[in-house]
Amino acid sequence: MTHDGWTVIALLGVGTFAIKAAGPAFLGDRPLPERLNGVIGLLAPALLAGLVIEEPFTGAHPGQLVIDARAAGLVAAALALWLRMPLPVTLAVAAAAAAVTRLLV
């Protein structure tokens, strides 16, 4: 992962902490509005999905599309999740698919 990728992940972590800390600080004991709860609940998975989808297909140059072993691992992980395999098995399947693809290509 590039330096920019780690910067984005660190900023997302800080932002998530700030959002979670702001609720109790500003609202006290009052509950969040239901509409805001829904948005906050979906924000982290959406950002994570964007990072996961973007990383395997990017190359060294901006705008470059690359299909390599990372994409094979992502497809294998998606298939394992679709088959409702446990997370450790899914990770092992994805790593094995990426490793085999690197060996063959």
Count of helical stretches? 4
Secondary-structure-based class equals mainly alpha
Largest sheet: none
Q: Could you tell me the radius of gyration in angstroms?
A: 18 Å
- How much strand content do the residues show? under 5%
Helix content: over 70%
The shape is elongated
Taking the alpha carbons of the first and last residues, their distance comes to: 21 Å
Order of helices and strands: HHHH
Mean pLDDT: 84
In total, the number of strands is 0
Structure description:
Helix 3 (69-82) packs antiparallel against helix 4 (87-104). This protein is mostly helical and 105 residues long. The chain has helices at residues 3-27, 34-54, 69-82, 87-104. It is built from 4 helices and no strands.
Keywords for this entry:
mainly alpha
Topology:
Elements lengths: L2 H25 L6 H21 L14 H14 L4 H18 L1
